Structure formats: C-alpha cells, structure tokens
Amino acid sequence: MICDMKYKFNYKTTAFDIWQLSMYSMYSSIVGVCNIIFTAMMVSLTVKFWGHVNNLLRILLIIGICLFTVIQPLVVYFRAKRQIARISDVMEIGFDDDGIHIKTEKQSSDLAWNTVIGISKKPGMILIFSTNKHGFILNNRVLGKQKEDFYSYVISKIQK
Predict the structure, then answer these.
(1) Which residue windows are transmembrane per the record (predicted)?
(2) CB-neighbour burial class of residue 123 (10 A; exposed 0-12, middle 13-18, buried 19+)
C-alpha cells in the first residue's frame, strides 16, 4: 500500500521529459560528438563560402547547420509525443524500504530494490532503471527540494 512511503510522488511523464532524456543520451555519446563536429564544420563552411556560392548552395548550407540544431531535436520531440500516447496518464510512485510501488488508474505493481539495476542523476532529472531500456523519470519539478535526499536514499537502497 502506498500510504506510509518514505517518498511518494504523483506525476505524469511528459513529452518534454522524454525529449530531454533522449537529448542527454544522444549528446553524451559518440553520436553527439559527431553531431557537434558536423555542425561546427557546417558553420565554418558557411562563413567561408557564403559570399561565393549561389542560392541553392546557401540553402543547403543552412539546412546543414539546422540538421542537428533544429531538425533532429524536433524529430526527437515528435517521437517522444508518440511515446507519451502509450503511457498511462497520472502515476503515483512510492519508495520505501521494501522497494518501489507504482500505481495507476488501471493497475499497480511493486519492484523490490534488488530488481533495480541502476540510477542516474542528470541536471534536470533522476532516472531509476528497472531494465536496460525501462525505468522511471523523476524530474526536478516532481522532486522539488528533496532531490538530493531522494537520490541519496535510492543509492543507499540499490547498493545493499
């Protein structure tokens, strides 16, 4: 039961949360490094050749600059919006010494601490992984001032 929890949150994962997580993952990998290098090279090519090329090539240079700065983030956001459509609306998630307790309108489940495979703290959120590809996003809006205490608590439970 979720009434005597050490920590309890009511929240709804948003498309922005998934977008933010995707962007963190992307730009902390080799793909992100390649994106940054490509964009920097496109900017330098644009600066160097802008006055010497026709309008078609100018458009292509602008598209090259926008590819990873505008187009890719928009595509990732729209993919996140499609993912959100498959996730339950409001979720109540509780944390206590026994584990993690999840409750939605239609179902509830419990995860023991020994089934949690990891936790990650990002600037705007804490991620708790139940599998390599699934987990819970608790953003700063949900966690509020208790973010650091909550993170320490979960770390202590996972390390046991």
Answers:
(1) 21-44, 56-78
(2) exposed
